[in-house]
Amino acid sequence: MRMSRWRSVCAASALALATSFAPAHASPEDDTLRAAMAEEILNLDYNYTTKREYIILAQLTDATLFNIDPETQEVNPSIATGYEWIDDTTLDVTLRDDVKFHDGSALTPEDVAYTYNWIANPESESNATGVVERWLDNAEVTGPNTVRFHLKSVYPLVIRDMANRIMIRKDGTYNEGGEIDRDAMSSDLIGTGPYRVVSFEPGTELVLERFDDYFGEAPAIGNIVVRNIPDVGTQQAELMSGGIDWMFKVPLDLAESLGATPMASHLSGPDLRVGFLVLDAGGYTDPDGPLTNVLVRRAINHALNTEEMAEFLIGGSAEAIHTACHPAQFGCDQDAVAYPYDPEKAKALLAEAGYPDGFPLELWAYRDKAAAEAIASDLTKVGIDVTLRYVKLESLNQARAAREIPAYFGTWGSGGTADTAAIARIHFSGESDRDMSGDTDLADLVLSAEQTSDQEERKSIYSDAIGKIADEALWAPLFSYSANYLVSPELDFPLDPDGLPRLQNSSWK
Amino acid sequence: MLRYIALRGLLALLVAFTVSLAAFLLLNVAADPAQAIAGEDATPDVVEAIRARYGLDRPLSVRYFDWLGGVLQGDFGESYYWHKPVAELVADRADETITLALSALAVTILIAIPLGALAALNPNSWIDRFALGVAVSAQAVPNFWLGLIMIILFAVMVPIFPVSGDDTWMHFVLPAFVLGASSVPAVMRLTRTGLIEVMGADYVRTARSKGFRGWQLLRRHAMRNALLPVISVLAVQLGQKFGGSVITESIFAINGLGRLALESILGADIPTVQMLIFVFAIVFVAMNLLADILNAALDPRIRIG
Amino acid sequence: MTSTDFSIPVTPAEDGAETALTPGQIFRQRLFGHTGFLIGAGLILIIVVIAIFAPLIAPHDPFAQSLSARMLPPVWVEGGNWDYLLGTDQNGRDYLSRLIYGTRVSITIGLGAATVGLLIGVTLGVIAGYFGGWADHAISFLLTAQLALPGLLLAMALVFIIGPSIWVVIGIVGVLHWTYYLVVTRAATQRIRSQDFVAAAAASGASPRQIIWHEIMPNLLSAIIVIFTFELGIAILAESSLSFLGVGIQPPTPSWGLMIAEGKQAMFYRPWLVILPGICLFLLVIGANLMGDGLRDITSPEGRNE
Q1: Is the separation of the CB atoms in C291 and C229 below 8 Å?
Q2: Among A307, A318, B277, C39, which residue's Cβ finds the most Cβ atoms within 10 Å?
Q3: Model's pTM, two decimal places?
Q4: Domain that holds residue C106
Q5: Number of domains in chain C
Q6: Domains in chain B, please, with CATH?
Q7: What ipTM was assigned to the predicted interfaces of this complex?
Q8: Please, which residues 178-237 of chain C have a Cβ atom closer than 8 Å to chain A?
Q9: Residues of chain A contacting residue B85, judged by C-beta atoms under 8 Å apart
Q10: H-only helix segments in C33-150
């Protein structure tokens, strides 16, 4: 009874807020979808950004050569109509002839070749350079609507990279007249996507309107306004008063509380992000440390009640995982060995490893504080003396780069790519400090998967790698995430299985 | 007097540079700006590219003197996040903070001085005790908590004021109250003591013997002298309001310098932090200087030397 | 430098003998006649007792989580449960027990940080006041720089470099709060130094060290005790602010500031998560302040209620 009175208080206050302060927005009437983001939006050019918010916006304003179907993982045409491998390292791509830029000009094969060659050039300092220079030697125009890509070596994931990373720009965009301007598209973006930029105030507001010459299917909603509201509580108040229609990354408790009112609907969709503990199996912090002992790592795996964490702390569609990849990712073989929750067995393993009284462990974390505390608490329960270091992401990364972190609670979203390659390469190929396994055989195995175009072979390599990671207990995989949204009851917002929100697919009820 | 002001101004600059050097070193130790810019799922090559792009791969000393060289020419550098000159950023946001600081000061004056005067006119009465109670309580309330409670009470339960933002004057009422409340105890106590002291002075006794009573006595004779120390304390408090705006602006989502400071400290946006610290230090020292000058100008007994 | 009410009168120790009563008796008489002091001391006493006997009083282990029983409301709200009088937090830990253990964190940090501040502030204050000249200028400069440096930055860097622990937080808060001691002891030392008995001691060949310890320190004592009591409250508030911003006490240690930060997210639906730890903080700090006010009145009766 007390609770419901609180609810009605909130409802009343929301009404009052709506009537007295915020101009009452009736979104379907003015055909404007107002979305809130906490992260500040400062640059609209995804070729020069990395964060997830920017992927969401790039989906609206830009187009890539191909699209990956989030449901089936199949390659769909976008700006390109198709492709053909001439040999292992030569790829021909055919383009549509009706693609228009937001300034009205038509897209040419020169634009495509320019974009790729620019990004592959280290001088561009693009955030996509690392992805492209791995495989691209150069791109050349071979006809009125064909571009040929010359590869440095065999690389099976070319089409995926093309679909995910490179936004097509007009020829000369970044170095018009020989002068390099990497911020050329950061605010006055000229893209080829379904929406075009009307106005942009960095860190405050982005206004988009439907681009009528868009080559693909026209989106249902005419205008999208993205507002930067850093505080989730403020976003919530705005949603209650009708100031916004859509918010994402909503903490579970808030989503459930507000979703239970008539002011908002709580949507919970899958997310490719997974959470895991990375353990210093390679002995970087201490060559003879307890974590170099596989029995200790298995004990840690047994000690964690990941199912409870997934159910109560992450919620929605989150589930416990036992693999070092998301079960929905290609090659993520679920036959890998699992270590079910069993604190007694964990204690026994610790004793067997020579640590009957546990050992001190510094556990680092940077997000989901409740989950980090739950992990620390579970480990403490089996006798490990955990010190939790809950820090800013930058601090964690810095300490990890200096090899000062014995164990951390990490997460990885795979950039929305449903392929084990997107998580295995960075974590197990030895190329980054995220790889604390110290296992060079494993690194070779993971890299070999990227040297073949044979899907069956790739699958079996990943299956081996994931199996090995589980056997050695290099990680303690925790749970998959769920994406929690709060949206206006009038908005129909479809969710995709890869967890990437696609505002362009929404419509009014 | 002029020499004194020049000396103090020099001191302010020296403080500002020392503090900015300290801030620069501390920030570089605590967080890597390249990582902060790249975000959660950044690959190492992206971080490297950003590091190169912003010149973060150069030695610390080179970067500091680079910054210093720019500052001496009036260029505070460009924010890593906002991609625009820091000076512009700070200028854009200063008005919100100035509005907040001044309205907070107004709140302090409106509450503290009448309360202190009432208490002084009626020492040891219930109003004196009430005033003391207010002072003691205001000193004991955590500022951030008061902010949250104000939101719960006056923005949600009894929705008189908006939850957050900085669009209209209504948005500033709660934050100004929260920020102003923290100065009430000091100002109130000082007003009260000052008045009690002045009321005991000979010339006030003479006035009283001539038949002046209560408010009239206060207004015509006591207030001016009693308020001398209060005015200089108010100047110092105003300086402190700028620093105090960090938490208040964050809680009420006011787009001012305080929130900018917090965000850039947490996000390792070094150029922005540097300039803000510089500005805060100068404001702080300037307000203290103003307090001293006011003291000297209003009270002929004090001589600055 | 002008600043807030640093007006603690320093009375020389040999002063204040009244007829028939020893100074100790007068002091005690004043102590027990001061309502504010009694309330403050009472509050502090209760909280200290709670902190010392926390394991006996707390109904649950403050660290024991039970994810399936998370976010339970207090007993007076629908869905509440007598097992958890004040409900549970986001990890299903008993809120009452965490509040009870929170007293330990606050009191330890309050005492520790006020002591660190005392050591720094009094040392600098006495040096500046006694020697004057360059030492005084250098220390004044340090004071201004200290007041201008954002504590948040210092806290972040120190927590990162040294690693979070209760000792680091004590160090940070202490390093941020020595200015009050400095300003008062500097002024008082200057005043005492110019008095006859100091000149007499110097004339009889006492070293500055001896003069400081035997002539000046005893006269500063009552002022230092009063400031210490105020700083106790200020340090407790400072710790809670740092913890609220995430750079103070680290989870899972129950700190009231941290608990407020955790509860903030859901404060429209579960306001008690924010209100309860705030009330605890308020009671503790007001206790320290009332005690400080009382001690000031008692040690210098002419400055009552100042």
Answers
A1: yes
A2: A318
A3: 0.83
A4: 99-306
A5: 1
A6: 2-72 (no CATH), 93-298 (1.10.3720.10)
A7: 0.83
A8: none
A9: none
A10: 35-52, 54-57, 95-131, 133-148
